[in-house]
Amino acid sequence: MSDRMLTMAxxxxxxxxxxxxxxxxxxxxxxxxxIYGGAFGVSGDLYHRFGSDRVxxxxxxxxxxxxxxxxxxxxxxxxxxxxxxxDFTAQAMDQIANQAAKIHFMLGGALHVPMVLRTxxxxxxxxxxxxxxxxxxxxxxxPGLKVVMPSNPDDAKGLLxxxxxxxxxxxFLEHKLLYKLPGRDxxxxxxSRIPLGVSKVVRTGKDLTIVATGVMVNKSFEAAxxxxxxxxxxxxxxxxxxxxxxxxxIYESVDKTGRLLVVQEAPAxxxxxxxxxxxxxxSPSFGSLIAPVKRLAGLNIPIPYAPxxxxxxxxxxxxxxxxxxxxxxxxx
Amino acid sequence: xxxxxxxxxxxxSSPEHAKYAYLYMNRIRKFEEAVEDxxxxxxxxxxxxxxxxxxxxxxxxxxxxxxxxxxTSTHRGHGHCIAKGADLxxxxxELLGKEIGYCGGRGGSMHIAxxxxxxxxxxxxxxxxxxxxxxxxxxxxxxxxxxxxxxxxGDGALNEGAFHEAANMAAIWKxxxxxxxxxxxxxxxxxxxxxxxxxxxxxxxxxxxxxxITIDGNDVVAVYEATEAAVRRAKEGxxxxxxxxxTYRWKGHSRSDKNLYRTKEEIDxxxxxxxxxxxxxxxxxxxxxTAEELAEIEKRATDQVIEAVNVAVKxxxxxxxxxxxxxxxxxxx
Lengths: 332, 333
Description:
Shape of chain A: globular
Radius of gyration of chain A: 20 Å
Shape of chain B: globular
Mean pLDDT of chain B: 96
Oligomer: heterodimer
Radius of gyration of chain B: 19 Å
Order of helices and strands of chain A: HEHEHEHHEHEHEEEHEEHEHEHH
Distance between the termini of chain A: 41 Å
């Protein structure tokens, strides 16, 4: 292991570069991914390194872009699509949900769609309701899509390499606030993969299990560090891929701690964390609970603009800290 | 299973080519009639979209394609599949929900794909296949395959945003794709007169900077010649072409259609320009075949469809046991 500290944007770019060097059929397409370097700077210098054929600037045509990726994937290429904001996947949803997700199953298995759709997700940038959503549940509820939500640079690199290898369509949701944050861990050199469908125990603890996704992993980590000073130890689990979902480390953790807090940025109603809770309730680990399960999620409102309004719409470190402490103190 | 017998090229280049084209038009007609019959007898469920009356378009287009050229098709796609060379038994079996069907019973009429003949699949979404065809053409160009891609769609799809985005991308990248708009006058019940302010739908191409041509879609020779020119242009790097093939569906949109939006007279007018009958008369006039030979070809088409139905009816029904494992392609180690 090296001690290289990269931002998530750099790690994602490195994964794309490695994949493009490894396989001639890998290419990136999207709006402003070329000389501009991507709206969030993720593609960066790839245009200069790999040329305009393999880092392909497209018109502003999300449906056409994803459709072109589906057709190319069916015909021997391995496209990586960048959709500039995850909100704009709404424009492309026919190709994502009706075409890419279903082709392998519906057409009898002879065809498949090895495509990755990367897209910046989440709030915190003051861009308001049409540029700030967390839409993972849209995709996770469509059979045939895999859904990845990396929370740090090292995971982002290894998971993206696996996503590009995968013969199925993968939705890769990158939280914007993570792009420029340095990770806690160094990013591995080389081209090692992190398999999809394996949850990660981010830190171990004995009093409480927190399951969090995306940027909420980082916020939960900060909250856990504060609680440690009070003698409360948190076991933090990052599913990393919400579809497929690896519940086993969550069961094992709840068996140990007896308490569960689930945290996501997306609104609570019909959200991903409810799937975690439901699967837990239906498992033998339900019997290990000594406290009610606590959910922390975004409010059921569109993300508002003003900074104080925007902050109030999604869980913050303080909220996680308070909820976690309350669970431990109130339920012995 | 019937073996693949492909003889592409101009349908009037030799008596063999002519008879081949005639056989394929008849295979499509007989197939569709068999499907209608099986539905009528309650042996098929779901719905069906028949293309009886439109046989010249898929036949003429696919005569201008090689086996490795690709197509995308539509909900009214049986003709495209057959013209590209699909196996009739596996098609009927799919409609009957059998394991040997093209989709193992998971797709049905609107989702038949056939990798061996370059058929990327019919599509249940109007316009759904158009961006996919453009992507396949992008792959063809990036991989220097030298192939073309044909996207079949109807007049209705021309009003989908998908067409707009895909046509523009094909134009700016000069992709080897041919947009074949089978204008059969109605998007379900909406006539083109209601849905367009254009006389010639092919004029849409002007807005994207590539040629558009309107042709008699019930003339298999005209369809072949227009497609052949578009294929040549595409392979020379000239980019896409929009072909509007004017035709007509004799049957309703689907099973539920009561034909409330058109007259019997209009349907009869179009039956008088039956593409199969017209081609038959051309072949007789030119002495490419005798009436007896053509009758024999018609019987051969019927026999092939009957054989396909007989095999498919007896085939094993699709098994739900494998469904969960069929969602994703297995990740190879």
